[in-house]
Amino acid sequence: QVQLTQSGPEVREAGASVQVSCKASGYTFTDYSINWVRQAPGQRLEWVAWISTATKHTEIDQRFHDRITLSKDTSTGTAYMEVKNLRSDDTAVYYCARVGSTGTSSNWGQGTLVTVSS
Amino acid sequence: DIALTQSPATLSVSPGERVTLSCRASQTVAGNLAWYQQRPGQAPRLLIYETSTRATGVPARFSGSGSETEFVLTISSLQSEDVAVYYCQGYGEWPLWTFGQGTKVQIK
Q1: Per-window interface: B 56-75 vs A, CB < 8 A
Q2: Tell me: the pLDDT tens digits for A83-107?
Q3: DSSP readout, B10-65?
Q4: How confident is the model at residue B1 (pLDDT cuts 50, 70, 90)?
Q5: Is B3 in CB contact (< 8 Å) with chain A?
Q6: A105 in contact with B at a CB cutoff of 8 Å?
């Protein structure tokens, strides 16, 4: 079955960087792109970025474009998101989600809690 | 960018009652509107996509309707396991996703 397995929780100080991974299984990795979504404590879901798993293309929300880097390893079926220069308001659960043919997603990772201390 | 506004913020309903959740878009999303259920500590679960199509495995008591800028999620008979926050999602501006602020459904 389709699964997205994310890396474990992280704690960082403000100004540091963190990388979250999202390993896909149960399907051909390059057939579906990946969206990254985050959710601050008690807040709504918010779209962060998108990566094509078949081409070099990425899209990053303009609020984060200078602090987020997306990458992938097609040999292992893993997508990565690095967030640099962390701030306290980056504290959130970060999710990866497989973008289905309809444009939305029925397959999400379990989430990775990133805690930023000031 | 499209903004999605959900109402009400919180709903307290008795088991077996009908539940109606609303989502209003700042501009048309055509039919590219989905609904997610999120239980505490869990990832979102897709319930409805393309306004009214139930995702695989979703019980028939969940239904979606609407068009353009006004959308509704209906739970025909609330069960205890339906206690969750429900989010609407617009996905017409590929690959950007926009979410509403959520409606929390509680048991009265």
Answers
A1: 56
A2: 999 999 999 999 999 999 889 999 9
A3: EEEE-TT--EEEEEEESS--TT-EEEEEE-TTS--EEEEETTTEEPTT--TTEEEE
A4: confident
A5: no
A6: yes
